[in-house]
Amino acid sequence: MRVAGKIVLLTGGSAGIGREMARQLQAKGAQVILTGRDPARLAAMAGEGFETIAADLSSAAGVDALAAALGEREIDILINNAGLGVAHDVRNALPDPDAADGCLYANLSAPIRLITALLPRLRARPEAAIVNVTSGLAIAPNTASAVYCASKAGLRSYTMSLRSQLAGEPIAVIEALPPVVDTQMTADRKTSKMPPEECARQIIAALENGHDEANVGMVKVLRAVYSLSPALARSIMRRF
Fold first, then answer.
1. Number of other CB atoms surrounding residue 103 within 10 Å
2. What is the chain's alpha carbon radius of gyration, rounded to the nearest angstrom?
3. What is the largest CA-CA distance in the chain?
4. What's the average model confidence in pLDDT over 90-99?
5. Which helix (H) or strand (E) holds 174?
6. Environment class of 197 (CB within 10 Å of its CB; exposed 0-12, middle 13-18, buried 19+)
7. What is the dihedral of CA 216, 133, 105, 187, to 10 degrees?
8. Between the chain's N and C termini, which has fewer beta carbons within 10 Å?
9. Total H helices, total E strands in the chain
């Protein structure tokens, strides 16, 4: 798919991977509408020439407000990138169930609800795409991030089913699976992190080249290990 001239709705586009995708898509000639929750970051992106919409996608009301704010705008590409991380480890103390609910909604329910709301206008375009950003943890979960892993695995499963449902229609359905990327969400992680610019580049390349999946960075290795031995892949990831 050529992204030049396409109208892109990118959620979570004011920081991290989303911000870099917005910049790279804009440089390739796409018109990017991005969402975010932080007013200062949205203002900074508006200063770079992006159309911005304030949106909190941790509830149904927030998703519906975003769809309403779009009005009748045409959309060629929907990128569900916004997401939340949450600590959920029962070994030391009982985790916050409300925080778990918010993570599950933002990472799983919100993309499903937004896709459902925007599918008619995507179907009206001669060529369209849906990109769902999951995680390498959707393939094999780690130990400490149980709810985050579950939400991303759920979105991975949904993406596969949606791709089958839309087979034969001119709507590509792409799953992007990043590794650990250097973003605000991973600020406390001491492990090696991929620069968000490179992660964004690989996701956009998968979109342009018509790939069903963008296995980014070390996720390629995890994917290969999982294809040979799912049990081994799960055993490796449980160490984290």
1. 23
2. 17
3. 53
4. 89
5. strand 171-177
6. middle
7. 50
8. C
9. 9, 7
Using CB atoms within 10 Å of the CB of residue 58, give its burial: 0 to 12 exposed, 13 to 18 middle, 19+ buried.
buried
Taking the whole predicted model, whether its pTM rises above 0.90 is answered as yes
> Residue range 217-227: average pLDDT?
94
Phi-psi region of 71 (alpha: psi -120 to 50; beta: other; left: phi over 0): left
**50 near 34, Cβ under 8 Å?**
yes
Write down all domains in the chain, each with its CATH number in brackets. 7-237 (3.40.50.720)
Sequence-distant (6+) residues with CB within 8 A of 192 are 180
Q: pLDDT confidence of 238, banded at 50, 70, 90?
A: confident
Active site residue ranges: 148
Rounded Cα distance between 225 and 218, Å, is: 11
